[in-house]
Amino acid sequence: MNQPLILDGKALAKKTEADLLSRVEKIKAAGKGTPVLATILVGSDPSSATYVNMKGKACARVGMESRRIEMPETTTTAELLAKIDELNADPAVQGILLQHPVPHQIDERECFDRIALEKDVDGVTCLGFGRMAMNERAFGSATPAGIMSIIEAYGIETRGKHAVVIGRSPILGKPMALMLLNKDCTVTICHSRTANLPELVKQADIVVGAVGKPKFVKAEWIKDGAVLIDAGYHPQYQCGDIDLENASHLSSAYTPVPGGVGPMTIATLMRQTVEAAER
Hints:
Blueprint lengths: L4 E2 L2 H21 L6 E7 L3 H16 L3 E7 L5 H13 L5 E4 L9 H7 L11 H8 L8 H12 L8 E5 L6 H10 L3 E5 L6 H6 L3 E4 L17 E4 L13 H4 L5 E2 L6 H18 L1
Parallel strand pairs: 1-9, 2-3, 2-4, 5-6, 5-7, 7-8, 8-9
């Protein structure tokens, strides 16, 4: 069997950022100002703060401005909605990102859906999801949209292929399945109640691990020559949701962890903010 192709998200993200840098320069040269991504962080979750910092650094790398809004742990739904309304109305802001998760007292779905469609650069609104599902113009959820960029950049064939998506979260598993469906895959969505999971995965030409459990997808479940997309990351184990250590050699292509899907999630968020500014 040939050596599997490594789907290097880190290299692709660098290339994407270089392209965005020149697009941002054009926006500025046209007198349209500097594109702004506003990130809202509610409470003091340390991993959320880390993600927001990473997004701020990525903005700087492509010449965009990052506006960080921090709100206390005690914030109410009404207060957060008022802040989102303020950002929706601000013509200087092109993209709004509400960092997930928010404290338990807040209705997260209501707040996500308050983000204006044209500023929903993280693809979290029900309206954006519906438009994406119908193959209409909308910003996709950043992680699955980043995965689709990897698939496209590396010329992975999707037409007529059987894709198995393991996980059904509203910002990863569900949009991932619909994006693959829109690219002519036959899609099976699996989750915690799925019976005969190993048998279903064994049929897959493309496997997407989006379950949030370290090394959950076993090597013996993988069909020879399958494409493995690992959307999980568990820092304490330095691994993803697929047991790549034992499964990668069985594949025709795979995303490494780290350095696969993660960098393209942030690059996609930047790209969608730049697109919002261009529009």
